[in-house]
Amino acid sequence: MSATPWPTDIYWTAENGILHVTFDDGKHFHLSGEYLRVESPSAEVQGHTPDQKKLVTGKSKVGLKAIEPIGNYAVKLIFDDGHDTGLYSWAYLYELGRDKATRWQAYLDAVEKAGAKR
């Protein structure tokens, strides 16, 4: 096993809007389209420094149109809202799965504080 867990399976279920990712360490994550979109690794969302991260709202129904492999290290997720600039490395997908509860709550708190809607 490598230092960074390696994906063994990745697929999207449109019916429930979930990306399923299984890694070689036995972890299996269910990541919603909304969660993936608001946590996109793109500069458009993350900015170039942590304090530049943007709050993305209005994505509760966003889905995926395609998943494109990028070499041996990532996938490009193409969302049905037109967003397609983030490359989700295996390490980043693992981090999103591992830290989902904390990240999701921080997002919900930020949405509430901004008086916005998901």
Structure description:
It is a single chain. With 118 residues, the protein is α+β, with helices and mostly antiparallel strands. It has helices at 33-38, 43-46, 90-98, 100-114; strands at residues 7-13, 18-23, 28-32, 64-70, 74-79, 87-89. It contains four helices and six strands, in the order βββααβββαα. A three-stranded antiparallel sheet has the order 1-2-3. The model has no long low-confidence stretch (mean pLDDT 95).
List keywords for this structure.
single chain; alpha+beta; NE0471 N-terminal domain-like; 3-stranded antiparallel beta sheet
Q: Layout of helices and strands, plus pairs?
A:
Blueprint: E1 7-13, E2 18-23, E3 28-32, H1 33-38, H2 43-46, E4 64-70, E5 74-79, E6 87-89, H3 90-98, H4 100-114
Antiparallel strand pairs: 1-2, 2-3, 4-5, 5-6
Q: In summary, what is this structure?
A:
Keywords: Iron, Metal-binding. This is Gamma-butyrobetaine hydroxylase-like domain-containing protein. With 118 residues, the protein is of the alpha+beta class.
